[in-house]
From TrEMBL:
UniProt entry tagged with the keyword NADP: no
Name of the protein this chain belongs to: Cytochrome b-561-like protein
Primary location: membrane
Record keywords, A-Z: Electron transport, Membrane, Transmembrane, Transmembrane helix, Transport
Phylogenetic lineage: Eukaryota, Viridiplantae, Chlorophyta, core chlorophytes, Chlorodendrophyceae
Domain of life: Eukaryota
Gene Ontology terms: cellular component: membrane
Residue span, Cytochrome b561 domain: 1-90
Location in or out of the cell: Membrane
TM region positions: 12-30
Amino acid sequence: MALQLTPLVTPSCRALGYVGGLTLAAWFFAPSNIFSWHPTCMGIGFILVMTEGILRAIEFRFLEKADRVQAIRTHGYIQLLALIFILLGS
């Protein structure tokens, strides 16, 4: 069974877009202020990516067998991405 990354593309691209935009904003307005990374990464981790993972968890309630396993893996990968952002922000 091959790993399908298609369900991961949307939240990952969304998160990277937010990080890129916020990084440019933080660099432009306050290049020496490292505290701006804390609310940026924590906000992306908790509000955007973790919410996406929770929404993915709702989807696999009614699935069975291989589809359910794949949906649970996708949920886990999204939650792992959220954890990475949260740890970067703490």
